[in-house]
Specification:
Layout lengths: L1 H14 L8 E10 L10 E7 L2 E6 L2 E6 L2 E4 L22 E7 L2 E6 L2 E7 L2 E5 L15 E4 L5 E5 L2 E6 L2 E5 L10 E6 L5 E5 L2 E6 L2 E5 L10 E6 L5 E5 L2 E11 H15 L1 E2 L2 E2 L2 E3 L8 E3 L5 H19 L2 H19 L11 E3 L6 H4 L2 H10 L18 E3 L5 H17 L4 H20 L3 E3 L5 E6 L2 H4 L8 H19 L3 H13 L1 H5 L14 H16 L3 H18 L5 H19 L15 H9 L6 H10 L9 E2 L6 E3 L10 E3 L23 E2 L6 E2 L3 H12 L6
Antiparallel strand pairs: 1-20, 2-3, 3-4, 4-5, 6-7, 7-8, 8-9, 10-11, 11-12, 12-13, 14-15, 15-16, 16-17, 18-19, 19-20, 21-22, 23-24, 23-33, 25-26, 27-28, 29-32, 30-31
Helix pairs in contact: 1-2, 2-18, 3-4, 3-7, 3-18, 4-7, 4-8, 7-8, 7-10, 7-13, 8-10, 10-11, 10-13, 13-14, 13-15, 14-15, 14-16, 15-17, 15-18
């Protein structure tokens, strides 16, 4: 993780003095210390700061931090065993913690918090505020912060004493766990608590939980020390972590992630996660492929297109162009014009891709998944014999392609070559769908598994639950095609689907949310990315109102996910609608004449966006710089509520504020996942994910003026 800190340092060095007026925030970064940094394997008993030097105590001796390494030390560690206090009542039990505060001594015991009031005389403290009154148990953590406030950690929760007034915190106020082991104060009033399941930092009334391998080498915390810069040194049962809180700006973070993508996630212009051959070790990163290379590359291209529109940075334009021509290559390489491949790899790719999807595998897989497509080879050869491309392309791919085609056309395409290229590829893909009855048809002449957008499918028992989403997507594809090519035939096809097949009515309910198995989170990407093109390019005021209602219906189900991409898409599209209202696009008295009140009521109701951008900015600021997929378990937390929805899977829930947990405390970093899953991982330390999941929501939000840059 020192690579991350070095990258931050370079970014700050080269941007010093440029970003004075930009929003700044603190970015937490964890650096795990173990054998490679000079510590012995296993338990770190104690950590102290002596003469501004961290000193770690282990079973095999003491070590000091010098030149980014731990070396044997002869410095005396100030840590001592807890004294025995005279006069403490027997019922207090074992002494667990102690500190000096207000010219006296406080002692935390098994059965209470005691304050010394005279020579060998003690008084039990019974903290209370307007919400709670406690006779404390297991007071294992005591410290005094730099604002001269006393803090404790006990079985009931944590408490802060300031000017003889207590403020108490439980899970309801955000305390995640209460089996305390230690506490330490930082230089600016922050306080760290160690527990038997991670550590957390308190800044006034805000709590930041740092647990699981993203933050710590082990969840059992023995000791914490905070240095003068605010870095927390956390000693655990299996190594030590430094948690550095570095001031950053949004553009600096974007620079970091663009470099991360270009260094480790660019495969011939295609963008996706990478594989780590050694768990947690970025030095072992190797390029990988995914089922959705097209969509992920489109998302990266869109990020760079928005970046170019904001900054006019030529690098952004170059990367946006590279992404577009990678997408076009996916279309050009296949068996017929307009069919996009999922993936392109060199013929000598190191994985046996077709062997993984043998005919025997397909047959066996169909027993558990009847809709699995039996096609072989799944990676046919290109005509020139130099590449393989993956077939069975899905609606996910199309959503990404069309999302980016419109953005690329509007923000990047300037030369004749660029304009002709985007017109041609959009026409090819759309004509393929129309030619094949609104289906993606593979090289075997049959539809792909997830590529049906036709009325017969929607009216079948297999496709009824997808008709809202897929009908809306098909209308979006046609709107993008009309906008990009200028060919009126796409408007005519869309009109036929609306008038004869009710696609616009289906589109008003573009997403199923019940039963829970129908509510897969990546469909939110498909829906919102497609709505972006549908609403942005719709020319009919009645349909604009219908699609704005569809947007709000979808948004109400996902607005508490703290997903900056979904937040940004919703805010942008709500902004499109409000702008059209302001421009006089709607004439309410002329719309929906069979119900003359409907248009005005809808315009009034949906004119104002319901976006609260606090959660978008929280997520953008707290997306970790370390995008390795860690296993993150939050099922033990006291500050969560379990989802009571009938039929919902176990282990789903959210914070006590009714919103998803912050992204740096969850088991995923990709913004196409369900943020209410409490125990999750994305690769269990063997995958690093691409920085697109910061870049796209940031540049999208900045372009649409949803955040202050």
């Amino acid at each position: 993780m020192y690579r991350i800190l070095f990258s931050i340092a370079l970014i700050l060095l080269f941007s010093f003095g440029i970003c004075a007026q930009e929003t700044t925030f603190h970015q937490d970064v964890a650096v795990i210390n173990g054998i490679s940094e000079g510590l012995p394997q296993g338990n770190i008993e104690q950590i102290s700061i002596i003469d501004n030097t961290p000193i770690a105590t282990t079973d095999s001796g003491q070590y000091e931090w010098k030149d980014s390494k731990w070396i044997s030390s002869n410095k005396a560690n100030t840590a001592t065993s807890l004294p025995k206090y005279k006069g403490l009542p027997e019922e207090a039990g074992k002494v667990l913690s102690t500190t000096n505060y207000g010219n006296t001594t406080y002692v935390g015991c098994e059965n209470g918090l005691y304050v010394k009031i005279g020579n060998n005389k003690w008084k039990q403290e019974l903290p209370s505020d307007i919400n709670y009154s406690w006779a404390l148990k297991e007071v294992a953590a005591l410290t005094v912060d730099t604002k001269n406030r006393l803090w404790f950690g006990a079985k009931q929760g944590i408490g802060r004493l300031e000017k003889d007034k207590w403020t108490l915190f439980t899970g309801k106020e955000g305390v995640p766990y209460t089996h305390f082991t230690c506490a330490a104060s930082g230089p600016k009033g922050q306080v760290w608590f160690g527990t038997e399941y991670g550590a957390f930092r308190v800044e006034e009334n805000a709590i930041f939980y740092r647990a699981n391998r993203r933050w710590l080498p082990d969840n059992i915390v023995n000791s914490i020390a905070v240095d003068a810069k605010g870095t927390a040194w956390i000693a655990t049962k299996n190594g030590l972590a430094q948690i550095v809180s570095q001031e950053m700006t949004y553009p600096e973070k974007a620079t970091y992630f663009t470099k991360q993508v270009e260094d480790r996630h660019n495969r011939m212009g295609f963008i996706c996660q990478s594989h780590l051959t050694e768990q947690f070790n970025l030095n072992t990163s190797e390029l990988a492929i995914s089922d959705n290379d097209g969509q992920y590359t489109a998302m990266y291209g869109a990020a760079q297109a928005f970046r170019y529109a904001i900054t006019k940075d030529p690098e952004a334009r170059e990367l946006a162009n590279r992404s577009f021509f990678a997408l076009k290559w996916l279309v050009d390489i296949t068996h017929e014009p307009g069919f996009p491949a999922r993936v392109i790899i060199p013929v000598d790719w190191h994985e046996p891709v077709n062997e993984q999807y043998s005919k025997e595998y397909n047959s066996k897989h169909q027993k558990n998944d009847p809709f699995w497509k039996d096609i072989f080879p799944r990676f046919p050869l290109s005509e020139d014999g130099n590449y393989r491309w993956k077939c069975d392309t899905s609606s996910d791919e199309l959503a990404g392609h069309y999302f980016y085609y419109g953005i690329y056309h509007d923000l990047i395409a300037e030369t004749k070559e660029e304009k002709d290229a985007v017109k041609q590829v959009v026409a090819d893909v759309t004509d393929h769908l129309i030619k094949h009855g609104f289906k993606l048809v593979d090289y075997d002449g049959k539809p792909t598994r997830w590529g049906s957008f036709d009325p017969d499918y929607f009216n079948s028992i297999w496709g009824w639950d997808q008709r809202g989403l897929n009908a809306m997507m098909m209308l979006s594809f046609l709107n993008v095609a009309s906008h990009v090519t200028g060919d009126p035939k796409y408007d005519e096809v869309a009109e036929m689907l609306r008038e004869k097949e009710n696609y616009d009515i289906y589109a008003m309910h573009a997403k199923e949310f019940f039963p829970p198995e129908n509510a897969v989170p990546w469909d939110n990407n498909l829906g919102l990315m497609s709505l972006y093109g549908l609403i942005n390019y719709e020319k009919n005021p009645e349909r604009q109102i219908m699609y704005r209602i569809a947007l709000e219906n979808a948004w109400l189900h996902i607005s508490k996910q703290k997903n900056a991409f979904w937040d940004g898409l919703y805010g942008a599209m709500a902004g499109f609608f409000a702008q059209k209202v302001d421009e006089g696009f709607f004439k309410p008295q002329e719309l929906f004449t069979e119900n003359p009140l409907f248009a005005k009521a809808s315009i009034d109701r949906y004119y104002k966006s319901s976006l609260d951008n606090r959660y978008m900015t929280e997520t953008l600021q707290r997306i970790p710089l370390d995008l390795i997929g860690y296993d993150m378990d939050n099922t033990h937390r006291l500050d969560i509520q379990l989802d009571p929805t009938p039929g919902q899977s176990a282990g789903m829930g959210w914070g006590n504020d009714t919103y998803a947990l912050p992204i740096d405390e969850r088991g995923h970093v990709r913004l196409d996942r369900d943020a209410t899953v409490l125990h999750d991982n994305e690769g269990n330390g063997y995958a690093e994910h691409e920085g697109t999941f910061y870049l796209l929501p940031y540049y999208l939000a900045a372009y649409h003026k949803l955040i202050e840059p």
